[in-house]
Amino acid sequence: MTYYTEEKTKGRGAFLKRFSEIPAVDVYDFAKYRVYLAAPLFSAGERAFNKIIAERLSSLFYSVHLPQELDDDASAREMSREDMIYHTNLEALLNADIVVGIIDGADADSGTAWEMGYASALGKRVIALRTDFRRFSEREDVNLMLESEAEVCHSADELFELLNPFKMQ
C-alpha cells in the first residue's frame, strides 16, 4: 500500500486556489481561537453589553468564555462556589488564545484589569475595548498600564474588524 507523504503546505490548496476571490481560513488554524471576554458584570447594562459582544464573537466562530455565564450572585457566594468560579475562569484564561477586556467607565473594573494583566504576562494577545468617550489624559483613555499591553479599539465594529479571521492570515 502506498501512502501520500508530501508535506502539507500553507495556503489555499489546489481547489481553493481556483477561487481566490472567496475568503478562506484554514480550519485547523482557526479552530484554535478561544476568546476570554474579561468585562465588568455587575449591572444589567454591563451584562447585556457583554452578551451582545459574546454573541457577535460566537457568530464569527470564536469559542467565547464569558464569566457572567457562571451565574455568579452575591447571595449564593460560599467558599466552595468562589473557588469554583475562580478556578473555572483561571482555566479558561489559561486556555484562551485572545483576551478581550472591556475597559469602559471612569476606571477599569479591577477583575478585568487583573485578567488582562495576567493574560499579558502569559504572552497572550490582549485587546481592550473602550467605548466610553471620557479620557484620562491626552495619551491614555483610562489606564496607561492596561493600554500599553493591549490593542485598544473604541467600538464594537473596530473590535470585530481586529478579530476578522479573514484579515488575520
Summarize the structure in words.
The protein is of the alpha/beta class and 169 residues long. The chain has one domain: 3-Layer(aba) Sandwich (Rossmann fold). Helices cover 38% and strands 12% of the residues. Helix 3 (44-59) links the parallel strand 1 and strand 2. The longest helix is centred in the middle third of the chain and has 17 residues, at 79-95. The radius of gyration is 19 Å and the shape is globular. The model has no long low-confidence stretch (mean pLDDT 82).
Identify the notable features of this structure and list them briefly.
169 residues; alpha/beta; Rossmann fold; 5-stranded parallel beta sheet; 7 helices; 5 strands; 38% helix; globular
Number of domains: 1
Order of helices and strands, N to C? HHEHEHEHEHEH
Query: Uncertain runs with pLDDT below 50, 5 residues or more?
Result: none
Secondary structural class = alpha/beta
Task: Please estimate the helix content.
Answer: 25-40%
CATH architecture: 3-Layer(aba) Sandwich
Taking all Cα atoms into account, the compactness measure Rg is: 19 Å
How many helical elements? 7
Kindly report the spatial arrangement of strands forming the biggest sheet: 2-1-3-4-5
- Quick check: average pLDDT? 82
The strand count comes to 5
CATH topology (level 3) name:
Rossmann fold
What is the molecular shape?
globular
Summarize the main sheet. 5 strands, parallel
